[in-house]
Design goal:
Belongs to the UPF0702 family. The chain crosses the membrane at residues 12-33, 45-63, 78-96. By secondary structure, this protein is an alpha+beta fold. The protein is built from 9 helices and 4 strands, in the order H-H-H-H-H-H-E-E-H-H-E-E-H.
């Protein structure tokens, strides 16, 4: 019966590893996962940003380990979660302050269509078929490629579409001026 109510308070709060080791482990895992997620094709990620997805994954893992006693203390888990927050904030801050760094964190938009022509090499890089592109264009109200001035794969995996300029009849143009 004593088993049900016995708590090892020392093991619960005293870290099982040094703070430096936990920080280095958390940092290495963060940057390894960041690099993997950064270079996946954008369409595989969806509408969640790379850094957001990474933080959620690492939080879940660090918190789970701290709760299930894979670490020997809650302090270990708290330090790992703090390391994740530190790197997430630091990278966002660096991207905000230094635009060149931001380009490394988030890929620039990749052109998929220019002046009504598909760019097959870019579509291949994003693992995007013509049928998938056309479905996404229809979701933007575009039925034909000729109606697209430009379409881009954004960093979050969404597609932005710029339609061709529509001609305004001269009679209507004169009335609005």
């Amino acid at each position: 019966m004593d088993f049900w109510f016995k708590v090892d308070w020392y093991k619960l709060f005293i870290p099982g590893s040094s703070f430096a080791e936990l920080f280095i482990r958390g940092s290495l895992v963060y940057f390894m996962l960041f690099a993997i997620l950064r270079f996946l094709p954008n369409r595989q990620i969806g509408a969640v940003g790379i850094a957001d997805l990474l933080v959620v994954i690492l939080f879940a893992n660090a918190a789970e380990n701290a709760m299930s006693s894979d670490y020997t203390s809650i302090t270990d888990g708290a330090l790992l979660v703090s390391t994740i927050i530190f790197w997430s904030y630091s990278l966002n801050w660096l991207g905000f302050k230094f635009p060149r760094f931001q380009r490394w964190l988030n890929p620039p938009p990749k052109p998929l269509v220019t002046q009504g022509r598909m760019l097959p090499e870019n579509m291949d890089e994003e693992l995007l078929t013509k049928d998938e592109l056309m479905r996404m264009l229809r979701q933007h109200g575009v039925q034909k490629l000729d109606d697209v001035k430009a379409a881009f794969m954004e960093a979050d995996g969404s597609i932005s579409v710029i339609p061709q300029d529509t001609k305004i009849p001269k009679a209507v143009e004169k009335q609005t001026l």
